[in-house]
Amino acid sequence: MIEVQGLTRKYGTFTAVDDISFVCQPGRVTGFLGPNGAGKTTTMRVMVGLTPPTSGRVTIGGHLYRDIPNPGRHVGVLLDASAQHAGRTGREILEIGARTMGLPGTRVDEMLELVSLTASESKRRLRNYSLGMKQRLGIAHALLGDPSVLILDEPANGLDPAGIRWMRGLLKGYAERGGTVLLSSHLLHEVEQIADEMILIGMGRIVAQGDKKTLLAGAAKGAAHSFVTALDNQALATALSAKGITVASAGEGLRVESETVEIGRTALEAGVVLTDLRSGEGGLEDLFLELTSDTQREAMA
Amino acid sequence: MSMNSTAAPGLGHGLDISGTTPTPFSRLVRVEMRKAYDTGSGRWLLISTAILTAVVMAIQLAVGISQDDVFLTYNSFLTSTNFSIGLLLPVIGIMLLTSEWSQRTAMVSFSLEPRRPLVIAAKLVVGLALAVVAVAIALVLATICNGLYGALGDDPVVWNAGVAHTAAFVLLQVIGMLTGFAFAALLLNTPAAIVIYMVYSFVLPGLFELGAQLMDWFDRIRPWIDFNYAQGPLVDATMTGKDWAYFAVSGFLWLVIPLAIGVWRVLRAEVK
Amino acid sequence: MTLDLGSTAPTPFSRLVRVELRKSWDTRAGFWLIASIALIVAAAEIIVLAVVVSQDESVALGDFVGTAAFLTSILLPVLGIMVVTTEWSQRTAMVTFALEPRRPHVIAAKALVGVALTLVTVVVSIAVGALCNALYGILQGGADWTFGWDDFSAFLVTQVLAMLGGFALAALLLNTPAAIVFFFVYKWVLPGLFEIGAQLIGWFSDLRPWLDFQSAQEAVWEWSSSGKDWAELVVSGILWLVVPLTFGIWRILRAEVK
Question: Are residues A156 and A239 in the same domain?
């Protein structure tokens, strides 16, 4: 369990993290979500003692990070996969980690196999690694000590689609076996599919937290709208307008200010064949953009 | 991609750390030793130091044999390491520390061992060990060269190696390594530390000399502040009580103070 | 489909030089290097001033300028080295060569920046020297404005050569620590070794002028030197400047930039 209590980190007059508190439970994957520069990385760096907090504290399983003996055996950390010596081979980087933690050399082979780095790839120097390969190596490094807590900053960064799916399975499995997983991302879709719990952060403050259902329920429901495509869009639009429903063209189809059920009924009455009908509710993405809109770089439309 | 069949991590809210022993210091030292030579640049620095030492002595040997008016002893071969080990050992000391910053590996090192003083101490031990290895190589090479000099040259071979001389030689190399290490801790930046070290060891002595010749008062305080000067008698192993006092005071100024400020800085630094 | 290149002018060399000049000081490392040069010069001049005033020694403008110039000559070539090597250590070469694939232009711009910075520091040295000499005049009631222009131009030339020496080593090694170590050895250790070698070995003493670039630069200080002196300067210059620079540039032009 990771417990963040009233954490603040200031750099001069700039407040990177502003009095945040949250808990990451064991057995769950917690997604730490926010736009660029929201304070995710700073928070994670404080967790592992690389950045001293201005005030507040973070405990992992009830301990300050620096009080955990041989912390690599308890907490797996991936903050920046590029922060390794460019002149070392991938295998050597894991070898050094394993030796520091007092692990047998076989653990390195296990980890290389786990993240699908081949023997020849592992003998290349890091400067010749692609972003995705560095990321795999970083994940392998975090998992080396078989920790019960994982702290991963943007772990999906640079991974190919197969790699992202693999990582999802890996982290879910980890949580199911009772581990605590905290991963950050600025991509909602990535987190949505894997996280049991989400913490949304913007400009150093937590703007919302909870599981997906709670977050959606708590969000203000806007007027419902749907997207529909018919064989005869014109006929459908006329029928909907006749009922006083606002219709606008959108892409190949129509954007309709109504629930899907009402559109289906109208289509049936008008005898129009629908090829696509879906709710336009943006789900978490809208919520995310809305909640962090004050803190977004781009003005929201 | 297969899931790894590792033991299930502990359930519950607390972290059970009772079964974990802290990382022993000896393991940190072994890891740091490995980090000193497992990169291309680190390995080449060590190899170049050894090669340069051999080359300088070989040139010295060739000159000694071919020139009648040059007379060499075991000690003169050792002294030639001023241009090899003396030059590169401090650079090794500097890079032991600064490469953690320039390559940003300090993030990993300090998250695997948050007790930063132990990590720095481990690096220092590695530096000292490398200095001792360099000395051993130099002694062996000097022995070979002096043997060859005796065999090939006309001059009588002189084995003027004593315990005091050897100890002084070890001390000199260790100081060189420590000075580099101290500047590195102070600056945490490879080029800056190397430049300062080079200025300190090549340019500053000339300036001190100039100052001492121009001003009487400076001439009197110079031994207390010029660490290079204070090491002079050490080369000939003729240190007196007063020399040791000079050595201690100037060493405090150039070694202890930068090292203390540097370590204090590393301990407090935000590691990026 | 082909790109319409008709309306795009190639990047002018002057713009490359301006950009490279800016890159030499806009990072903390570059800024502090230049700042430390300034601080060291200021501190040294104050010390010199204090010493000559307190010891009642007589000095001229040339002495103050010489002090400033000597100190800048130690650190300035480091800037010349870092102008080249930081592109590799910080991996900015990827961006630089993507924006201007004509690599020789980039290298030439960097070399020009090195030379320009040398000229600037020489001018600053003179200004600082004049200021100190004026202060000396106020404190001691009368200053000596003697300044050897011959020495000055010789100094300028040797400074530029020192800067280019650092630049050439940097291009050859493309590695900051290695280039700095080599440069200090070349500038401060090698002359001593050549001297020892020349004293001990007869044939080396004859050969030395053709090998020792720094002692060959003596020719610049005495403009009336013989043709042989100048020939020695050219030969040793080829050895220490042209050869490493050529290899270095050849290497940069062919290098895979990572």
Answer: no
